[in-house]
Amino acid sequence: ESGKALGLLGRNGAGKTTLLNILTGIRLDYKGEISYFGRQEKGIDASVQERIGYTGPGSYFLPQWTIRQVEEISGLLFDNFHKDRYRALCEELGIGGSGTDVSKQVKSLSDGNRMKLMLAAVLARDTSLLILDEPASPLDPLMRDRLCDMIRNYLDQGGGEKTVFFSTHNIADME
Fold first, then answer.
1. What is the mean pLDDT of residues 145-157?
2. Cα(74)–Cα(167) distance, integer angstroms
3. Contact assessment for residue 68 and residue 105, using Cβ atoms and an 8 Å cutoff
4. Which listed site, 28, 44, 114, 156, has its alpha carbon 20 to 30 Å from 100?
5. pTM
């Protein structure tokens, strides 16, 4: 439902990531139809992809990319990416240390900083739907609280038209 955050809770192997991969168009080997923003279709077209922000586990960005290259490539891939917002989020989240070293490579970042980088890249876009696969798992307790604030702000800024769908193992994260 628009204007809401929905948490998907389940044990390891229950299919949470598989479902999110289907919803984001990463996996197309499913039966049935998915409705995106009121339109039913098989797969996701470019206009729908522009409206969905996704963070997932694993190698989201190529390991040799730098923080600056993530910005440049995101700007090329998505018309709705705002470089100034990305830079502000990187600085605010302390990605790559104080003063954000934009020459740092993704592979040199901690798991928590890689997740913060993914969040900065996705929140720097104008989207209608955030799909977040285990976003809090690699984060420290203070950043988990900040993530909750970021999700609330995202929903508040959408005027009731934005949605967040996330998976978690942690009931406290869902609360």
1. 93
2. 24
3. no
4. 156
5. 0.90
